[in-house]
Amino acid sequence: MAKLTKKQKTLAELDAEKLYNVEEALSTLRQYASKKFDETVEVAMNLGVDPRHADQMVRGMVSLPSGTGKDVKVAVFARGDNADKALAAGADKVGAEDLMEDMQNGNLDYDRVIATPDMMGVVGRLGKVLGPKGLMPNPKLGTVTPNVEQAVKDAKAGQVEFRVEKQGIIHSGIGKLSFKDEDLLKNFKALTDAVVKAKPAGAKGKYVRKVTLTSSMGPGLKLDLAEVEGA
């Protein structure tokens, strides 16, 4: 049997059933952090929903007040003045039919795709390409908008999308381990508040069932549900 590394031994000693508050969890994650790169801090929320039913879908956007620590790549479908405004706001790629063809050829290295309403005839042809990646512009999420300038700025400043997966879990990064505790706490509260407020009409029984905080290479630490207001 292979010997456990020092880190694996220490991780094995963690009490799997312990409930942490957010500050304790962050402190513990930092103890096991990689020295080689700045790990992302991630939240997993297990919800009492079945997203196969439309009235139990949980999805939305939230602005993380302290940003994500990540460079967000944004593509915008727009023409004329709107295209100029999107570029000025920091969009990485702006176009119309040319951008559609580029994406059809497999160039999809974007974190957010935004479109003006008049471009949806072009964007609609990309449903099978953008849909599976969760990149299809959507008016409910503010990614189909006449104000592309603001949408680009929001995306670049730390606005993230959350969406429940088939198993009823939402995963989202809330920053980097190098962030100060207070900044990660602000982001944690913004995300969890947004998910709680997005409780769908069809959700029955307990809505937030489990919340876990982890980092890219770290252990998953269960949080006390009292840390999530309204849970």
From TrEMBL:
It comes from the Bacteria. Transmembrane segments: none annotated. PROSITE patterns: RIBOSOMAL_L1 (PS01199). One of its GO terms (cellular component) is cytosolic large ribosomal subunit. One of its GO terms (molecular function) is structural constituent of ribosome. Keywords: Repressor, Ribonucleoprotein, Ribosomal protein, RNA-binding, rRNA-binding, Translation regulation, tRNA-binding. GO terms for biological process: regulation of translation; translation. Part of the 50S ribosomal subunit. PANTHER family: 54S RIBOSOMAL PROTEIN L1, MITOCHONDRIAL, LARGE RIBOSOMAL SUBUNIT PROTEIN UL1M. NCBIfam families: rplA_bact. Belongs to the universal ribosomal protein uL1 family. This is Large ribosomal subunit protein uL1.
